[in-house]
Design brief:
Strand 1 and strand 2 form a beta hairpin. Helix 2 packs across helix 3 and helix 2 packs across helix 4. It contains five helices and two strands. It has a two-stranded antiparallel ribbon. The chain has one domain: lambda repressor-like DNA-binding domains (434 Repressor (Amino-terminal Domain), Orthogonal Bundle). The radius of gyration is 16 Å and the shape is elongated.
């Protein structure tokens, strides 16, 4: 679990679902896509996009369609495993 804090505010946990919702929204916006255009491209209802970006339940099939439309693929991996892209941060030289 990741914790965030701001000056004089309560520490809030960020769940994986919340991070996923934020990343979906950021990815869509960085591509200058509206929710409606992403929905059409992913072949899902606009409400599905809204729900996904709000961290609400959507079907796995719909999540895959949205991810694919944004240029991602879903990957399942065991917790606490390291992937090649993370090695540079793990073995970063402390100067």
């Amino acid at each position: 679990m990741c914790m965030i804090t701001r000056k004089n505010l309560i520490i809030q946990p960020i769940t994986n679902l919340e991070r996923l919702a934020v990343e979906l929204r950021k990815s869509r916006r960085s591509r200058n896509m509206s929710q409606q255009s992403l929905a059409e491209f992913a072949n899902v209802a606009r409400r599905t996009i809204t729900n996904a970006e709000a961290g609400k339940n959507i079907g796995l099939k719909e999540l895959c369609q949205i991810a694919n439309a944004l240029g991602f693929e879903l990957t399942l991996r065991p917790k606490d495993t390291v992937v090649f892209e993370e090695l540079s941060t793990i073995f970063k030289d402390e100067a």
